[in-house]
Amino acid sequence: xxxxxxxxxxxxxxxxxxxxxxxxxxxxxxxxxxxxxxxxxxxxxxxxxxxxxxxxxxxxxxxxxxxxxxxxxxxxxxxxxxxxxxxxxxxxxxxxxxxxxxxxxxxxxxxxxxxxxxxxxxxxxxxxxxxxxxxxxxxxxxxxxxxxxxxxxxxxxxxxxxxxxxxxxxxxxxxxxxxxxxxxxxxxxxxxxxxxxxxxxxxxxxxxxxxxxxxxxxxxxxxxxxxxxxxxxxxxxxxxxxxxxxxxxxxxxxxxxxxxxxxxxxxxxxxxxxxxxxxxxxxxxxxxxxxxxxxxxxxxxxxxxxxxxxxxxxxxxxxxxxxxxxxxxxxxxxxxx
Length: 337
What we know:
Rossmann fold, 4-stranded antiparallel sheet, D-amino Acid Aminotransferase, Chain A, domain 1, 3 domains, 22% strand
């Protein structure tokens, strides 16, 4: 198996779970754009590759798959998905676990995602697609600023990159003295307008969704969810959730089913809500709550390779335990260069 973006925060747990599948020994090939990725130390082999948006990215992966005799490619980064989806045929007999190009495009483009939610009647945040400081300011005021806080977000992002709260009460002095480096800081609208200047890059101004964060993780085929379950997403640190609780929530599964059906999703997906509003659709694997009798990534790979049919995979749904908890933490490795 080839695991892309093997330096992302969930890689260590994912690699461990794939190895501890209880059936067979897997040979894991890690790739990343950084040689300091943890996959370099935890996978059986490792290759530095171009970024997912680089024209040479797909060619580099195809060459590695041929050389390493890879059976399946499991992508972890949103930035790689479009190139992989558009070039699956270049991988020959290697199975690439990625949805269709159209499903990836509509999921990764947040404006497309929110338009989809509006069309199928699923609650999402109120939103405006904007370009330039003047449109940002106008949209923010339409959505209630300065009386209401609103949010600013790039059209395509991952891991909260570029997300900012726009608040008339933002206190830059307090942020300077109290916040850790890297913490996403609230801005006043005037500050964002000044930062944007003449930049006409398209972005979103949107309602600031509030409430508990939950996600639905699963495996789909042809737009039908074969296996999945909801979980909470808590204890945020640098934009990443650090604590999760599995849930039994049929209404959340119904929301996910409607989205998966509209996009005709295949393979892994992750749908994120804040309060009652869907804010993210990720057509890729995300952080997984593992059980000793339910290894979602391994089952998804077997399903993609034809070793499990839909009914056999769906039978695992009865094993989901809503009592299951997951806590992420920091670890480290040492080596001599």
